[in-house]
Amino acid sequence: MSPFMDFFQIALENIWLYGASFLFVLTLLVFIHEWGHFIVARMCGVKVDVFSIGFGKELWGFTSKTGMRWKFSLIPLGGYVKMFGDSDPASAGHGDSVSYTEEEKKVAFFTQPLWKRSLIVFAGPAINFLFAVLIFALLFGIKGKYENAPIITAVQIGSSADIAGFKPHDTVLEINGREVTQFNDIRRSVAMALDTEMTFIVKREGGETFELHPTPARFSFEDRFGFKQEIGRIGILGPSNGIAIDAITAIDGEKTDTENIESIRSTLLSKIGDPFEISLTGFTDEGGSVLVAPLLKKNEALTDPENPLYNALVLVKEPPQKFVEFTLLGAVSEATSETWNSVRDSLGALGQIVSGARSPQELGGVIRIGAVAGDMAQRGWIALAVFTALLSINLGLINLFPIPLLDGGHLAMYAVEAIKGKPVSDKAQEYAFRVGLTFLVFLMVFANLNDIVQLIL
Question: Are residues 251 and 394 in the same domain?
């Protein structure tokens, strides 16, 4: 069955889950973004006429006691807050033909000092970042976090890591000058570094440190819907509870009988204590091997049928995971760090797309967002919460790009106003917004066609 039919069948069978999760996430994030504009506008004394979730024809709404219209509109792919005195929801100018009293000018958006207008515009993206921090902080505070030590347990023969000189049991201290505290730091940095040489500082057994320079190889993969992505790999394994011995297809080049576990166990017990090579089912497309150096004292379970790890080869020399509990401040700090790392990764990936180092096929539209939202909802509320936080980060980041119609475009015009000492003319704004609208429509069409093409082909 094609990825398109897979997606269509799964979406049809789970239409309420996929549709509801997509609308819930999108509506929530749009509301949070627009509420940022709204609340700061009110704090700055600006009157708000309309708060809309979605664009186009109004589906449902009501008018508050202050005269503001709250509404849901037909097209749920965004929203807006229309300030008093603006000629349109994009704050692209104000009606010159309209006369305002002095009292009305006090609450109009366009009459506010530059710093207030900038603060109101910046509040939308800013609250998206703060919302992500809040989600992560709640997750860390309530659920804690499991961390794997930044220890390499196996090195793929012939890989970039092997060529650079990595050995089993190396502990990674730094990558490109940044401290490494968990194996996920390694995975994250390597995944982003396509064809780019990296600098690792590693500590070997005995305490000696080395500087190694692997260059991650590209690895392309597709999810079950056919959406493509590229990541970097250097050919290492991190800490784990163990490798199922029936997944070992060869030991030091000699093929194993995966149906005869006792034979594999006997061979492993004769090898443990010295470095040796094993091949693993599914580790590489070419069926390559990895260098391991398991310790005898960590594999005593291989001779104890009552032990849960009786049929597992343990590669790590110390407990593979630790559970971290956070205080309130610790959870906020960790959440802020996670948000910043996501911003940095998103900017890095976008830079790679612009430079040609990464394929633009990875740009996704509403179809991909809906598919991922549905998948995360199936996995549970924690996965959906993490996805919502990541999407909130990207929404805030995209809105800060200096593209007319987006918040970043307004901020760019305010920067010009600050330099020139007078606002950008309405005519110049109109031309800029036309260009911005054309670009955004093109980008949306490209991203959604990209999704459709990958589903069909």
Answer: no
